[in-house]
Each structure stands twice: as C-alpha cells, then as structure tokens.
Amino acid sequence: MKLRTDYVSNSSSSSFIVIVKDGVDKTEQISAAHRDCTEKYNAWAFPNKRFKCEFGWEWEDTCSFEGKLNFIGIQLLYLFMQKMDGNLEPSNYSSWGGKDFDRLYDMVQKVCREKFHIEVKLNTEPITVQCFHDEDRGYYAYTSMDYDYYIDHQSAVYEGSCMDMFQSEDALYDFLRFEESYVRGGNDNG
C-alpha cells in the first residue's frame, strides 16, 4: 500500500492487493467450477467480461478467483502491449517491462494447470492495434485497450504497482486460492 506523507497533486486512487499465507483454501471449488477447462483448446480465457474488469476508484474488494484472475490478466495485457510496442525494458516508473510478459504469463498458466487443473489463456481481444502513416515517421502502430478493461494508473504495472502476486509461484497460488487474498479498490479523497 502506498503511504503519502506530503502534498501530491496527482491521482488519489489507493488500490492495492493483499496476499495471505493461510486462509480458506478454495482450490477444490475452483477446480470443480472450471472442470470443463482442462484442455488447451477449451481453456478459460481471461480477462473475462462476465466478471469484474474495472479496478479503479470504487471502494470494493475483489475476492473471487475469476475477479483476481481478471486483475492479473489486465496487468499482463499492459505488459503485452509494451512488448508489442517494442518497450521491453522497464520504464522510469516501474521495474516491469514488456520483457517480463512471457515469464509471467507462463507462471500463471503453470500455476492454474498444476494447482487448479485448469488451462487458461490470455484474452487479447481488449487490445486494439491502429496503424498510422505520416510523412516523417512512415507507417507505425499504436496499441490501446478497451475502456471496459481497466486498472487505475497508480495501481497498474506500468507504475510498478500491485504485482506482488508474481514474487513466486507460491505467492500467485496463495493470491488465487485463498478468499482472504483480494484486490482492494478505493481512493484517498476522504
């Protein structure tokens, strides 16, 4: 969680994630609920519009496996867009860059396959690629994400925030399996 001790003039969102090491383990229920997603051709696509896909200013905790997987998916989509744009190295605001996408996506797939016995695949439909041309630059592409899939900028990977679930496979598993692990959305406007 970010603590502000002096005046700031930027956004006042205050989203964060909580990962517990012990709690109500939902592994069996998650596996049963997604039993039909055990083959690569029938994988669970995330982020999935049927569940929470906007993580902004609202005061809300997202505790469900599907909601947390959507949060992870949106973070991965941001990294994927960086990779597509050729921004492989971390920015001035984050220790994460497009070069991290493959490793983190593989981690999510491995944890879901080995722990929950389900196959998952990243839903890239929210990403739009637009091509432009001008006299000086020639042809170039610009990527953007559908506004229905959103993490407030100060809680998103491109500012280095809310990526603790990727510290290890165990942390990712604990984030997804325990209902006491959650994404907290909110703001500090009082």
Spatial strand order of the main sheet: 1-9-4
Q: How far is the N terminus from the C terminus? A: 16 Å
What is the residue-mean pLDDT, rounded to a whole number?
Answer: 87
What is the number of strand segments?
9
Low-pLDDT residue intervals, each spanning 5 or more residues: 1-10
Your description of this structure?
With 190 residues, the chain is α/β, with parallel strands linked by helices. The chain has one domain (16-185). It contains four helices and nine strands. The protein has a three-stranded antiparallel sheet. Strands 2-5 form a two-stranded parallel ribbon. Strands 3-8 form a two-stranded parallel sheet. Helix 2 runs antiparallel to helix 3 (101-116) and helix 3 crosses helix 4 (169-177). The protein is globular, with a radius of gyration of 17 Å. The model is unreliable at 1-10 (pLDDT under 50).
In short:
The chain has 190 residues and is an alpha/beta fold.
Annotation keywords:
190 residues, single chain, alpha/beta, two-stranded parallel ribbon
